């Protein structure tokens, strides 16, 4: 039986100017999951981020939103993982994904970082790529027929139709969270991927 998820990390950039940007999709989902677990975020300087502590089936669950900017996310994730003695396999990272269209989502364990600076830094901090990722599709400027550079694209809010797809994904991710906290990854994956719009 795989280890259940104990640390849920939403990736994004701190500050009101980034709040509604595509790169903050991980923060959006983390906020909803905290609500679902009836937990609230509070800034914890020692962990370089906002931390919410919850319980699931009698076990502690920690939610984290690093406040280090995306490319230094590992500093925050590493500090929390070391303090609570979480293994990489117990960590779930929620992040935006350029290779998936809005409305699509993928759950996977391990693998590369595909140029995502937050994932690259977390992998370095944990010393392993074996953590889980929920990849929230935001689309790519090319596939969405936009002339923007990627760096500019991720720091802009999604258009209305894209946001509808992203919100639908967030709802679906919330639905499988209890399964991830129970270590039922196969069931969670099947449910999540079955709902992906072709």
TrEMBL record:
It holds the Pfam family Pept_tRNA_hydro. CDD domains: PTH. It comes from the Bacteria. It is an enzyme of class 3 (hydrolase). GO terms for cellular component: cytoplasm. The keyword Transcription does not apply. Its EC number is 3.1.1.29. The record marks 96 as: Stabilizes the basic form of H active site to accept a proton. The active site is at residue 23. GO terms for molecular function: peptidyl-tRNA hydrolase activity; tRNA binding. TRNA binds at residues 18, 69, 71, 117. It catalyses: an N-acyl-L-alpha-aminoacyl-tRNA + H2O = an N-acyl-L-amino acid + a tRNA + H(+). Belongs to the PTH family. This is Peptidyl-tRNA hydrolase.
């Amino acid at each position: 039986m795989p280890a259940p998820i104990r640390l849920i990390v939403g990736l994004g950039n701190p500050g009101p100017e980034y709040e509604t940007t595509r790169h903050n999709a991980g923060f959006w989902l983390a906020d909803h999951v905290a609500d679902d677990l009836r937990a609230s975020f509070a800034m914890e300087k020692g962990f370089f981020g906002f931390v919410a502590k919850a319980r699931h089936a009698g076990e502690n669950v920690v939610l984290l939103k690093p406040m280090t900017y995306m490319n230094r996310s590992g500093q925050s994730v590493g500090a929390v993982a070391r303090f609570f003695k979480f293994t990489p396999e117990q960590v779930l990272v929620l992040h935006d994904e350029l290779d998936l269209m809005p409305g699509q989502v993928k759950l996977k364990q391990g693998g590369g970082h595909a140029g995502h600076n937050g994932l690259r830094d977390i992998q370095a901090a944990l010393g392993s790529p074996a953590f889980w990722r929920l990849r929230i599709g935001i689309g790519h400027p090319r596939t969405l027929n936009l002339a923007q550079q990627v760096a500019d694209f991720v720091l802009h809010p999604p258009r209305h139709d894209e946001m509808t797809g992203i919100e639908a994904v967030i709802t679906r991710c919330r639905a499988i969270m209890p399964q991830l906290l129970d270590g039922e990854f196969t069931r969670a994956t099947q449910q999540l991927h079955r709902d992906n719009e072709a």
